[in-house]
Each structure stands twice: as structure tokens, then as C-alpha cells.
Amino acid sequence: MNCGFSSSKSARPRxxxxxxxxxxxxxxxxxxxxxxxVLAGMAYPAISGLRQSGLNQQAIGIAQAINQAQQxxxxxxxxxxxxxxxxSGSAAKYQLIWQYIPYASSxxxxxxxxxxxxxxxxxxxxxxxxxxxxxNAVSY
Length: 140
Description:
The model has no long low-confidence stretch (mean pLDDT 88). This protein is mainly alpha-helical. A hairpin with a 5-residue loop joins strand 2 (129-131) and strand 3 (137-138). The protein is rod-shaped, with a radius of gyration of 31 Å. The protein has helices spanning 26-76, 80-86, 89-97, 108-111; strands at residues 117-119, 129-131, 137-138. Helices cover 51% and strands 6% of the residues.
């Protein structure tokens, strides 16, 4: 039964353009891998910077939402200033205002982006401060 294959002929590479054999030599392949590595190494700092910038923007958005919740709390609760000053620490102050933040978690640690710390001020008119993992302040 003949399936179109002849066992008497040896397998030869197909000729490419101008009769040359198509494919890459090992030197060309290694050169391409090295070139791809150099390009990836050059792109990493830019991509890392974009990622950090996005995380900073997320933290800023959350801090602004908390600032607005502080103002809403101050307008709606008669003893807001007294309650705020009596609360010890950011977690206790957050408990006073979290219901005024859309889609917020009931704890500040659940609402704070990973790698950041949010510190609520001593008064209701003090803006939230943001610090990243290195302790550097994020300004907004």
C-alpha cells in the first residue's frame, strides 16, 4: 500500500528563499534570546513605575473618600467633634465614619490598599495621611 511516502528517499530540508535552507542557526537563536532579555530588562523599570503609580492613585482615592466621610459625619452627627477626639487611633476613628463610605469595609485594615498605611487626623478637618511600605508619605 503506497501512502505517498517513499522509503528509498532520505529526508532533506526544504529549500527556502533563493534555494537556501530555512531556519535559524544556534548563534542566531542565542542572539535573539539575548536581545529579548536586554529589551525586557530595559522595560522592567518603566512597568514597575507604572504599577507603583497606579497603587498610589488607588491609595489617594481611598484617602479622599475617607476625607469626604469625615465631613459627612461632621455634618450629620451632633457630637461629631467630641466623638472624634475621644476615639483613640485611626481604627477607632474609622469605625465612626465607615458607614459614610460607599463600598467600604467595616475595618480600616480591610479598606486600606496592601502596602500602605492610612492615619486619620486628630480633628475632623485634618486630612488623612498616606504612607507606603517604605514609610514615604504619598502627597495628594
